Amino acid sequence: MTGRQSDLYRRYMAADTAYRRHASGCAACTLTAPGPKCRTGAGLYESFSTLQQAYLNHLK
Q1: For labelling, which of 6, 33, 47, 50 has a CA lying 20 to 30 Å from the CA of 57?
Q2: pTM beyond cutoff 0.90
Q3: In whole angstroms, what is the distance from residue 23 CA to residue 29 CA?
């Protein structure tokens, strides 16, 4: 892994962990999607999704 790739991967995994921690304690969110009215979950999930897509695109 290059430096940029490994940094992107670390941020992607950190975002995944943050969302999963939130979802495990939030009645509205699930592990696969934020609840429709949970702004915190939506923000964390969006961050995770954006970083995941960036990481996957970087691998191409």
Answers
A1: 33
A2: no
A3: 5
10 Å CB burial of residue 59 (0-12, 13-18, 19+) is exposed
Torsion (CA) 5, 6, 8, 12 in degrees, nearest 10: 130
Average pLDDT, the chain: 93
In 3D, which of 28, 45, 24, 46 has the Cα closest to residue 37? 28
Check pLDDT > 70 for residue 5: no
Beta strands per DSSP E along the chain: none
Q: Which amino acid is at 5?
A: Q
